[in-house]
Specification:
- By secondary structure, the protein is α+β, with helices and mostly antiparallel strands.
- The protein has a single domain, classed as 2-Layer Sandwich (YaeB-like fold), CATH 3.30.2310.
- 34% of the residues lie in helices and 28% in strands.
- A 4-stranded mixed beta sheet has the order 1-4-3-2.
- The longest helix is centred in the middle third of the chain and has 20 residues.
- The chain is globular, with a radius of gyration of 14 Å.
Length: 100
């Protein structure tokens, strides 16, 4: 089944802020954006890539970690939190954050 990605405004803002603050220069920012878009495509093709955190209020969401180009602060890993709505054919990216 083909899924459609839903990217809420606040998640898009988190991605934009990450790229603008972690990378200097348009070329580095575009490269980081390409990496993130590539990972969204991987997730769209296989929503089972993520893992579910055990217990807690967010156990219905999955977490997908992936590599990004090294940034000014040395970050190289980021993650999406997402929910798969199988009946609607949607993957809702409900969070984005870089990891230390």
């Amino acid at each position: 089944m083909a899924y459609e990605i839903v990217l809420p405004h606040d998640t898009q803002s988190d991605i934009d802020e990450f790229i603008e603050t972690e990378y200097s220069g348009q070329a580095d920012q575009l490269e980081a954006l390409r990496y993130i878009e590539r990972e969204v495509s991987h997730l769209k093709a296989n929503p089972l890539l993520g893992t579910s955190p055990p217990g807690g209020p967010f156990e219905s969401r999955k977490i997908y970690q992936f590599l990004v180009p090294p940034s000014l602060t040395g970050r190289t890993v980021a993650e999406f939190a997402y929910t798969v709505l199988e009946q609607d054919g949607l993957i809702v990216l409900s969070g984005f954050r870089p990891l230390p």
